[in-house]
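We treat protein structure as text, and this decision shapes the records that our systems exchange. The remainder of this section carries one protein's record, kept here as part of the documentation:
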Amino acid sequence: MWERTTPKTLTWGRGAPPLTWFTGGFVLAALLGVYLSWTAWVLPAGLGCLAGALVCRLMKKWPPLGRILLGGGVALLWLTVYGALFLSPAQDLADRTVRLEAVVTQWPQETDYGVQIPVDAGEEGGRKVSAIFYGTDELADLRPGDTIACVAHCTPADTIQGQESLYYAGRGILLQIKGYGEITVTRCEGVSLRYAPVYLAQEIRELIDRLYPPDQAAFLHALLTGDKSGLEDADQNNFNRVGIGHVVVISGLHVTFLVGFLTLFLDPKRKFSLGILFAVLLAFCLMTGSAPGTVRATVLCVLALLAPKLGREYHPLTGLCAALLLLLFLNPYAAANAGLQFSFLSTLGILLFGQRWNAAWVARFPKQYRPIVRPVLAVVAISLSAMIFTVPLSGAYFGRFSLIAPLANLLTSWSVTAAFVGGALSVAAGALWLPLGQALAALVGLPIRFFLWYAQKASRIGLAAVDLDQGYYALWALFVYAVVLLYLLVPGRGKRPILPVCACVVTLCLSALLTAKTVQRQDLALTILDVGQGQSVVVTSGACRALIDCGGTLDPGDTAATYLQSTGGSYLDLLILTHFHEDHAGSVPELMDRVTVGAIAMPDVDRDSPLRQAIEAKAAQQEIPLSYITQTSQVTLGRARLTLYEPLEEAGSSNELCLSVLCALDDWQALVTGDMPQEGEARLAARKDLPDGELLVAGHHGSKYSTGEALLTSFQPETAVISVGHNSYGHPTPETLARLTQAGAQVYRTDRHGTVTVYAQNREGP
């Protein structure tokens, strides 16, 4: 971690530090051990790695290889031990219904069906493991330290929405538990030292709620305590799109703010002040949930502050390795934690490139201007260098990355600093005297409002982020990496970045143009977006675009807006809503904040629906014309024609009162029926004289109550697409799949095939 050198200045030294090779081997082996489902190889491979390291040591050759093998061997052996100590007790409980005892470790969080509670749970008298307990709203008043006992069913925490996932394992959570029957609650007496940071965080959140309005309070909850549950999904999507989502994830940024502020009053050279700094850092880390980024930054700060006291020089790369090893020792499955991966890779980029770039850029300015430009260039250098290793990761996880991130971080950095420091001061002042805290909160609200406003406005920019799944953006990203690699590897001093930067900008514009033109040259195309359990269908004809519905379980508003912005701009000619259920219209308000909507067509039903009223209010605010479809209407969309069929009943459920939409280009037809049941489909087929069709977007996500024989006999689709995600309804049902197969339709599903695009093709064409 430290090297004895004189003078004591920050240097990189010659070559990689020894701990770097060890850490590389440890991380690589941990990733293989965690991600590979077959585990019988772990112990033999670990012993083999240790034997190889011993051979290198005895032969006194290949020191880096020996350290890599040593790290890999230690990691694989630790995975074996970790499995015996923690995974085995969880596996013993998996898929069993037992009499369970659990200790609450965090505050309950509300869900759509009750509450979820982090606990340490196990059979009475048995070993406890970390788990998530699901219960009713009656358990919402539980506190950390309380004990609950009940009959419960335990399932492995290895699936999310029906998909295998290491998300929970990466956080150290091994079981999901559902309680049944009577639940006995034993209240804890007082507050133990273990849960004191959790109670402190809750006290801070309650005080923030008294000082700030709800939207600002939710932002400060995330900024100061790491609790993002109060943030609106739309706000979080905006943050992520413009590259400032890291602000609301407790990380090294917040630790840096905290240390920078405290060192204004505490001198780290004095032992007493240093002890206070360490205590505050530890308390902040525990209070905010010990996220990987926070632990990493805390370890780095502690080592950097401690180095002068020990007469050592602090080596940041070695410190980064030490922090990573600490986290993986606590939980080797944290190697699969996306937060840890982003945190350490971004920091690695900053250490390797950011500081060097900043120094080189500042040196180009005359000395009298350097104090002015240094902070600005530092933010840009940090933002760009942090993206070096995280852009591929972002593409792998989310299929996109933010282009506007460096500018966004530059423009908002002041507001984040002001909000963090000002928010902390207002909380401290409010704890002493509430009016003083409220006065400070009024001032702190200004940078918070600016941050929220900027995120919303910047997210509307068409190329604020690019979707790597669309068009030519993936090729462009590969080109940019090739340019950066050449720039870094080509020897020579005084290299000017203007040419590679211009090449990247020009090719970005070309990629955007080609992507838009590729989409716009289609006479008619329907894109059924993968929004989980919901529906969102983009209809494109030339330069004109319509969207049928916008709801689902996988950020449908963000998904639809990003698709539109990546393939032609932030404008939508027509938004059509089949009905006002959440899985079809729940994200319309977010969509309207992200893209400009020319007009909205919807049925005149469910007038008391809060969702309909919210959409109407936002449409009035944005002066968007509304059309209530009460009779069959036709709309021209580019070279295509849309026919909107009104609800065919005067009363009934929302599903029975759905709009349906026929999209046509010459004799090519596509039909979207929303959640219309079979009885409604039969009326539609009988009354509206449906033509033979090519594409059917199956009704009600493949429910057995929709896509009936009457509709299939009348419309005779060649292709059917089912917009569906993980659900508890059994969609798509075997009955529906059988009917579609019998009708001769080729079936695609968004839960298996992702986003599906179908292009119109004249039947008589080639």
